[in-house]
Design a protein that fits this description.
single chain; alpha+beta; Thiol Ester Dehydrase, Chain A; 6-stranded antiparallel beta sheet; 24% helix; elongated
Length: 140
């Protein structure tokens, strides 16, 4: 099995809370950044999605905080899609310090919203596969 897609991020001082920890909401920003970076690497753009009449939506997110992150820490944020064949898919993500220490684990449920009907599309994997130049990045 290949390694999941990953992007490196440096924790910035303005992202930290009064204790000096990475603010809890910023973990979501890092996860979102990694998801969009994966889409871009796979050849899927926001304009391409909108032109197709769909947009990605997050339906559920769970974060498990395991180790503190401080300003200046470099972290790798992974992203791996899991497909069940239905209207939704799972996204599994990890945030690891540069030394490999697992700092957080995120699990999400997403879908593709039909922008006209305002309903989830029946087979989001098929649409990602059709739009992508690198469908393997999606696990397709």
């Amino acid at each position: 099995m290949s390694e999941p897609f990953s992007v490196r991020v440096t924790v910035r001082g303005y992202e930290t809370d009064v204790q000096g920890h990475l603010n809890q909401a910023v973990y979501l920003n890092y996860a979102e950044h990694a998801r969009w970076a994966l889409l871009q690497a796979a050849g899927v753009s926001q304009t391409g999605l909108v032109r197709t009449g769909v947009g990605p939506v997050v339906l559920e997110t769970t974060i498990r905080y395991l180790r503190e992150l401080l300003a200046g820490d470099e972290v790798d944020v992974t992203c791996a899609f899991e497909w069940s064949g239905g209207r939704t898919f799972k996204v599994r993500q990890e945030i690891r310090k540069a030394d490999g220490t697992l700092a957080a684990r995120l699990t999400g449920v997403g879908g593709l919203l039909d922008l006209k009907e305002r309903k989830l599309v029946a087979d989001p994997g098929r649409i990602f596969e059709e739009l992508s130049t690198e469908p393997a990045l999606f696990g397709l």
